[in-house]
Specification:
Blueprint: E1 3-10, E2 13-20, E3 23-30, E4 41-50, E5 55-59, E6 66-69, H1 84-88, E7 94-101, E8 110-112, E9 117-118, E10 122-125, E11 131-133, H2 140-154, E12 159-162, H3 171-194, E13 200-202, H4 207-214, E14 222-225, H5 228-237, E15 247-249, H6 256-259, H7 262-267, E16 273-275, E17 281-286, E18 290-296, H8 306-328, E19 332-337, H9 344-358, E20 365-367, E21 375-380, H10 387-391, H11 407-423, E22 428-434, H12 435-443, H13 448-452, E23 459-465, E24 473-478, E25 490-491
Parallel strand pairs: 1-14, 6-8, 11-12, 14-15, 18-19, 22-23
Antiparallel strand pairs: 1-2, 2-3, 4-5, 4-7, 4-13, 5-6, 7-8, 9-10, 10-12, 16-17, 17-18, 19-21, 20-21, 22-24, 23-25
Length: 493
């Protein structure tokens, strides 16, 4: 199956996508927003130490102070971890901090003083005194060999983590990469020395550079880049690798994402309903604490017994859920409500399929067994906002609830406003409202009893507007004997 990568810029926003067989499997967006700052290093100042929580808040130039946990402060050999915060940082201290997790919603960024500089094959940890090997490498003899290599390279000056790409890397390339990463740290320290509190002293790679760095390019067929500067930078970064021959500078007349059918797939991410290939569907419901996914059979009825139909639907759903959380970049806790299955072997098989598909995700995921209620919980490491949040903004009308008030309730609110005007002594009341809502009020004769009863002797005019939002209306009183109203004004009943 052909796998391609795509990069394009729109202003300061970088759009990146990965497809398998023409189907979108990853989408990334880097904006000029100051909230997407993971990996950047800043000069901060401790503003508050919470000894009881073993944490501190640090001002580092962002709107919200960052959160520094005791475990993210380099360990002192003579100080127990429980004493670190109290003894190593205090209010007013200036500290070099790296953003481990960008601010999300109302939460500030998570910070770390355990700095890391990520390369293609290794991660350099200047404050660490250990070496390690990626957990994705499971062959024990190979792990031991890589660990010995890491310890030899480190030479007691910081720590090294061997990434999966290090398996095929030459020793000379590893030395060159470590030298480069150490140079980045030296540059950051030099900038920190003269920086003011809140200034950034190191910027992590943008989305195109991170993907080219972190992705296994040996499995990629083509890398399409529509921006000339980005293409030249990628060409320089990959000049010593075989991946250089996979680069394609796209200069077509049509926008690249539209040309390759990516835009329509990105747009579909905004929908909470995801259809499955067999006619079933998923419903995504995001809350502040977690993401809930509901599996529904839809119009899929199967061809055999009910249990087999349900089992088949859940298997298809498990595969699509793994794809969607990766595609939407959903992080944190995810709860999946699979359709109830009677057989324990079927339940275990569905969880196993979900786990298998999630292993293809480059972001770490942990899956728990299915409960008796058919619920499966898994976690996915959260570093920044999910893609839907980055591609949308909060609706000023529904305030983020995703709902509009019903016509019946809107009519009730208008009735309250009319009655208030009459109670205030007005003989004439003018209501301006949405044309559709006006049609509902008239057709349902919602205010008939009021006009004949408590509003008797008063005049209520309604002025419908096609451009008014469903929930917007104005009500005002007027005691002038002669009213100047538009031709569209209608006397209620």
């Amino acid at each position: 199956m052909q796998k391609n990568m795509y990069f394009d810029y729109f202003g300061d926003d970088c759009f990146a996508a990965v497809t398998e067989g023409g189907r979108l499997v990853e989408f990334h967006l880097d904006t000029d927003s100051s909230t997407e700052i993971s990996g950047n290093i800043y000069k901060g100042r401790v503003v508050n130490v919470l000894s009881g929580m073993q944490a501190a808040f640090v001002a580092f130039g962002q709107e919200k102070n960052g959160y520094l946990y005791a475990g993210d402060i380099p360990a002192d050999a003579d100080i127990s971890p429980q004493k670190q915060l109290a003894l190593q940082v205090k209010e007013g201290d200036e500290v070099m901090v790296q953003v481990a997790k960008s601010p999300i919603g109302s939460k500030g960024a998570r910070l770390s003083m355990c700095l890391s500089f990520v390369g293609k094959n290794i991660i350099f940890l200047p404050k660490a005194d250990f070496c390690a090997v990626s957990r994705k490498i499971t062959d024990e003899p190979l792990r031991e060999k890589l660990l010995r290599t890491a310890e030899k390279l480190a030479g007691g000056e910081g720590g090294i983590v061997m990434r999966t790409n290090a398996v095929n890397a030459k020793l000379a390339d590893l030395r060159d990469e470590l030298k480069y990463l150490r140079g980045l740290y030296a540059t950051a320290k030099e900038a920190y020395a003269s920086a003011a509190v809140g200034e950034m002293v190191y910027r992590d790679a943008d989305v195109h550079a991170r993907l080219l760095r972190d992705f296994d390019l040996s499995s990629v067929d083509k890398i399409y880049i529509a921006d000339e500067k980005t293409y030249l930078r990628a060409e320089a970064a990959l000049r010593r690798t075989r991946a250089k021959n996979k680069l394609v500078y796209y200069r077509g007349e049509r926008e690249m994402f539209e040309m390759f059918g990516l835009e329509e797939q990105v747009y579909r991410l905004m929908s909470s309903r995801v259809p499955l290939e067999n006619g079933a569907y998923l419903i995504f419901d995001k809350t502040e604490a977690l993401t809930a996914i509901d599996v529904n059979t839809g119009r899929f009825t199967g061809e055999t017994a009910l249990e087999d139909t349900v089992y088949e639907t859940n298997l298809v759903a498990a595969r699509e859920i793994a794809r969607q959380v990766r595609l939407r970049n959903i992080g944190g806790i995810v709860i999946v409500d699979f359709i109830d299955m009677a057989g324990e072997d079927h339940r275990n098989a569905v969880v196993a399929e979900l786990s298998r598909c999630l292993q293809e995700d480059r972001t770490k995921c942990n899956v728990t067994p299915m409960t008796e209620l058919g619920l499966v919980q898994f976690t996915r490491k959260k570093v920044k906002s999910d893609n839907v949040a980055m591609l949308t903004k909060r609706c000023p009308c529904c305030k983020g609830s995703g709902y509009l008030l019903s016509d019946s309730y809107m009519a009730f609110r208008i009735k309250i406003a009319i009655q208030k005007c009459i109670a205030d002594g007005y003989d004439n009341v003018i209501v301006e409202l949405n044309a559709g809502l006006y049609g509902y009020i008239v057709s349902k004769r919602r205010f008939t009893e009021d006009v004949r009863g408590i509003w008797a002797g008063k005049r209520v005019y309604m002025i419908p507007h096609k451009t008014f939002h469903d929930e917007f209306f104005t009500v005002r009183g007027d005691n002038n004997p002669v009213l100047t109203l538009p031709e569209t004004a209608r006397l209620l009943y």
